């Protein structure tokens, strides 16, 4: 019995099946979050990154333009820790060099009518942090020693919260 499908057609068919199975296997998958990202400000109003690692590790952080279209995400700044961040809080300036951090993309100019998101990640995509969204108006309402982050309630709802750094340390990992 002879096949009516040529080799190029068979290869194309197998390729289509492989691509389809890959899409099915990777769709809907997200990196588990085991850290909480926040922002704060210095005494002179400079933006600080705040990361509370709950149990595993975080290797770096990225600030990007928050957009409903994931394909149009624009990175505004990115930082890599010299050593993985372990459980506990860490803060560092986002607009100037910081000890124990390498700037992989220097912080760009922030615009008043733009919403930004800040989150943490691992190099191997094994863990991430929750992200925090903010505008320059949100940043301008912060005072030194306070942190803006997305708080997670017991029922899983997220809402923006601004609390003292001590309260952030106590609450951030509670429902994660």
Write a structural description.
This protein is of the alpha+beta class and 176 residues long. It is 18% helix and 41% strand. The protein contains three helices and eleven strands; from the N terminus they run αβββββββββαββα. It has helices at residues 7-26, 136-140, 165-171, and strands spanning 33-41, 47-53, 58-65, 75-85, 88-93, 101-105, 116-121, 128-130, 132-134, 146-152, 158-164. Strands 1, 2, 5, 8, 10 and 11 form a six-stranded mixed sheet that branches. Strand 10 (146-152) and strand 11 (158-164) form a beta hairpin. The radius of gyration is 21 Å and the shape is globular. Residues 9-28 have low confidence and may be disordered.
């Amino acid at each position: 019995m002879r096949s009516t499908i040529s080799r190029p057609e068979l290869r194309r068919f197998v390729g289509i099946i492989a691509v389809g199975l890959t899409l099915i296997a990777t769709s809907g998958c997200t990196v588990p979050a085991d850290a909480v990202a926040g922002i704060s400000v210095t005494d002179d109003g400079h933006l600080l990154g705040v990361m509370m690692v709950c149990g595993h590790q975080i290797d770096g952080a990225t600030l990007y333009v928050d957009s409903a279209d994931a394909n149009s995400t624009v990175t505004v700044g990115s930082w890599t820790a010299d050593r993985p961040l372990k459980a506990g809080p860490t803060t560092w300036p986002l607009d100037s060099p910081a000890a124990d951090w390498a700037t992989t993309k220097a912080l760009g100019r922030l615009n008043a009518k733009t919403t930004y998101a800040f989150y943490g990640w691992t190099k191997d995509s094994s863990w991430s942090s929750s992200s925090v969204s903010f505008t320059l108006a949100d940043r301008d309402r912060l005072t030194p020693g306070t942190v803006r982050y997305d708080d997670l309630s017991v029922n899983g709802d997220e809402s923006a919260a601004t609390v003292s750094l001590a309260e952030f340390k106590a609450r951030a990992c509670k429902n994660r």
